[in-house]
């Protein structure tokens, strides 16, 4: 059986202990067992990798100069964290022929986070697809200045033309007729591309398949 060792954190101010614990999947004592001490434990086999894991996590959270050390004693493994300054966004420049300000949530003066940067890109793409724009040119960059502890965000977008649904073909549905499948689609050939219509069609088709197989099983039970 793998040995569990108690883990503690000291010095972290901006990053919550719960977030650090979630990164490595610590085990906490049950909240229902109120007579037990509130402790967190980790598999001892993970110890050699923990320093690097936390350094990478802090870097993704914008703390490029974070200093992370640990010591081990009879009570467990204890991490000591010096977060130092975080990378601050000093500018967000947008060159776009399509309105995207509502999904660009990175703001000047806030901490740069790699996850937020990725989510911003995905948000832009989803908004474009929602409007049927699937041939866009999107270029997003984050220029990190380690000396100044700052980041410059640059977003360039050309929306392109509206895409349309092409010819619809149906394959691999021997138990359900093509007409039934077509009746469940929320889009038609030559209509403007719409991501949500694809999602609605998928959900409609999935429900129809469940209904079909339930009916088939019902009639089978009746011997028909």
Summary?
The chain has five helices and eight strands; from the N terminus they run E-H-E-E-H-E-E-E-H-E-E-H-H.
Number of helices: 5
* Unreliable segments of 5+ consecutive residues: 212-224
- CATH fold-level label of the largest domain: Ubiquitin-like (UB roll)
Radius of gyration (Å): 26 Å
Q: What is the CA-CA span between the terminal residues?
A: 55 Å
Q: How would a crystallographer describe the biggest sheet?
A: 5 strands, mixed
Structural class: alpha/beta
Whole-number total of structural domains: 3
Give structural notes.
The chain has 224 residues and is an alpha/beta fold. The protein folds into three domains: 4-82, membrane protein fhac (Ubiquitin-like (UB roll)), CATH 3.10.20; 88-158, membrane protein fhac (Ubiquitin-like (UB roll), Roll), CATH 3.10.20; 178-221. It has five helices and eight strands; from the N terminus they run E-H-E-E-H-E-E-E-H-E-E-H-H. It has helices spanning 17-24, 47-60, 114-130, 178-183, 195-221, and strands at 4-10, 27-28, 40-43, 67-73, 76-82, 88-96, 137-145, 150-158. The strands form two sheets. The chain has a five-stranded mixed beta sheet, with helices on one face. Strands 6-8-7 form a three-stranded mixed beta sheet, with helices on one face. The longest helix is centred in the last third of the chain and has 27 residues, at 195-221. It is flat. Residues 212-224 have low confidence and may be disordered.
